[in-house]
Design brief:
Distance between the termini: 120 Å
Strand content: under 5%
Order of helices and strands: HHHHHHHHHHH
Largest sheet: none
Number of domains: 3
Shape: elongated
C-alpha cells in the first residue's frame, strides 16, 4: 500500500461519483479534494469538461476496495499497490549545469579556485562550476583566449556553486592530499663517538680540564675572601670616623 496521491484526482472523482455509491467524504478523502468539490461535481456545477478516469483500469483501486467502501461509509479507501515499478531516473553524471547568464563568469571562478585552493583537482573544479578540463588547463597555463581580462571571482558569490559544496570539495581535497614530510624534532646533545674521545689530543685535554677547573675555583674563592676583607675594612673605618 502507498499513500501517494491518485493520478488526475478530479477525473478520478468524476468517475467515482458517476459509477459508485461512495459518499462524498470517501471520494474526497481518496482524491485529496474537499467534500464540497465532490458535491459540486455530483451537482454538475464543477468539472463539466473533465472526462472520468477509471481508477480500476489505472491500477489505483480494486473492485474489492470499492465494494468495501460502498458497504461501510466509514471505510477509508486505500490505493492499491502498483504492479509495475517505475525506476527513478538515475542522477546525471558530469559537470554541473550552469545557467546561460552565468556561463561567462566560469573562467573567473576557475581562476579564483586555482589561486585560492590549489589543492583542488580538476575534476572537483569541474563539478563545482560546470566547466571542462581543457578550459581549466588553458586558464592555468595562461593560454585562455581571454586570459588578459580574467579576474578571480568567488564562485559562491557568482552563484555557480553553494558554500556547502565548496567546503565539501576543499575538505575532501585536504584529506586526500599526500602527507608532507614530518617535522624533524630537535635532537638534544649526544655523546661524541669513541673514535673522537680516545685520541691523544682528547686524552690530553681531558687531563688538563680538571686542573683548569680547580684553578678557576681557587681564583673565585680568593676573590670572595678579598671582597669580604675589603667590606670589613670599610665598615671599621666608618666606625672610627
Amino acid at each position: 500500500m502507498t499513500n501517494a496521491n491518485p493520478l488526475m484526482p478530479k477525473a478520478t472523482a468524476v468517475w467515482l461519483v458517476e459509477n459508485t455509491s461512495l459518499s462524498f467524504e470517501q471520494i474526497a478523502d481518496f482524491c485529496k479534494l474537499h467534500p464540497l468539490e465532490v458535491k459540486a461535481i455530483a451537482d454538475g456545477e464543477s468539472a463539466l469538461t473533465i472526462k472520468g478516469l477509471d481508477p480500476i483500469l489505472s491500477g489505483q483501486l480494486t473492485r474489492e476496495e470499492i465494494a468495501a467502501g460502498e458497504a461501510d461509509p466509514n471505510h477509508h479507501l486505500v490505493m492499491a499497490d502498483r504492479k509495475v515499478r517505475v525506476p527513478l531516473p538515475a542522477k546525471r553524471k558530469g559537470p554541473r549545469y550552469t545557467p546561460v547568464s552565468r556561463r561567462q563568469d566560469r573562467p573567473n571562478a576557475v581562476l579564483w579556485l586555482l589561486r585560492n585552493h590549489p589543492e583542488l583537482k580538476d575534476a572537483q573544479i569541474m563539478r563545482l562550476v560546470g566547466t571542462t578540463k581543457p578550459t581549466i588547463d588553458s586558464i592555468r597555463n595562461r593560454t585562455h583566449w581571454n586570459a588578459n581580462n580574467l579576474q578571480p571571482l568567488d564562485p559562491v558569490t557568482l552563484g555557480l556553486c553553494s558554500q556547502i559544496d565548496l567546503d565539501f570539495e576543499v575538505e575532501r581535497a585536504a584529506k586526500n592530499a599526500p602527507a608532507t614530510g614530518a617535522a624533524v624534532e630537535p635532537q638534544g646533545a649526544t655523546l661524541l663517538p669513541a673514535a673522537q674521545t680516545t685520541t691523544a689530543a682528547a686524552l690530553a685535554a681531558a687531563a688538563i680540564r680538571p686542573a683548569a677547573n680547580a684553578e678557576r675555583a681557587a681564583d673565585r674563592e680568593a676573590d670572595a675572601v678579598f671582597a669580604k676583607l675589603k667590606s670589613m675594612r670599610g665598615s671599621d673605618e666608618s666606625k672610627d670616623d
